[in-house]
Amino acid sequence: MEIQLTADSTCDLGEHVKLRDIGIMPLSVILGSDSYRDGVTISPQDIFDYVERTGQLPKTAAPSIMDYEEFFETYTKEGKTVIHFNISSRSSSSYQYAEEAAKSFGGKVFVVDTHALSSGQGLLVMKASDMVRKGKEAEEIVETVNALRPLVNTSFIPDRLDYLYKGGRCSRMAMYGANLLKIHPLIEMEDGQLVAGKKYRGSMEKCIGSYIEDLSEKYHAYDRTRCFITHSSADPELVEYAKKRVAELFTFDEVLETVAGSVITGHCGRNTLGVLFIAN
């Protein structure tokens, strides 16, 4: 039976959505009283403009159970088996609603709680796509990606803490202190939720360099298939520098650059950058 891979829009896979034929379920981004569909009717620039104009962060909302049912049906009515990848259940209700919707399809829809977000979520989608291309069955794919979840390095460095402060993820004092002293904290996923880690100090380039060096020291063994450098409209020079350091310190078969969508951008702000891959 043909397998259709799908994912929440938070997977931040960029052009690889089309290249890999991944079905995307948009989450909602709410600006004031208006609701938009992530990646469809709103862009990250709209987020930046809204926050600058209002001083407020956008709100986000998960698709409803009915939304997921309609989404899955577009594929199951064609005789396909669906494997859907949700943003971490500790970050959104999406997994809960998708799992409930899947009950209507008699085992034809599998739902994966990735315990990740952004291209950390996307890494599991890409691994599943690799397996589909090799002719693997749905049950084996789901079992494999679920086993890989604890090995996904989902981490990033924000340029400023303004968005994290507005989102209630750090205090006003921490934000002012970090911005004044040029402190850039490591933000990473642990057990499906974002936590603050090591604090880097200096320019973003210096901090990104130290961050990538720390990753190389921490992860001596890793899946060399691919790495994502995902950013929220970061400065091109910063992105190129990150690519250079990754190439110097790691040996990935491919290093893929993607830009974060509106949901992820709305939580971290411009110029945030992360290096994401699967460890061994």
Labels describing this entry:
2 domains, alpha/beta, 4-stranded parallel β-sheet, 280 residues, Hypothetical Protein Tm841, Chain: A,domain 3, 4-stranded mixed β-sheet
Structure description:
There is one protein chain. The chain is α/β, with parallel strands linked by helices and 280 residues long. The protein folds into 2 domains: 3-27 and 62-150, Rossmann fold, CATH 3.40.50.10440; 154-278, Hypothetical Protein Tm841, Chain: A,domain 3 (2-Layer Sandwich). It is 41% helix and 24% strand. The chain has 11 helices and 14 strands. Helix 10 (236-249) links the parallel strand 12 (227-231) and strand 13. The two termini are 31 Å apart. 47% of the residues are buried. The model has no long low-confidence stretch (mean pLDDT 92).
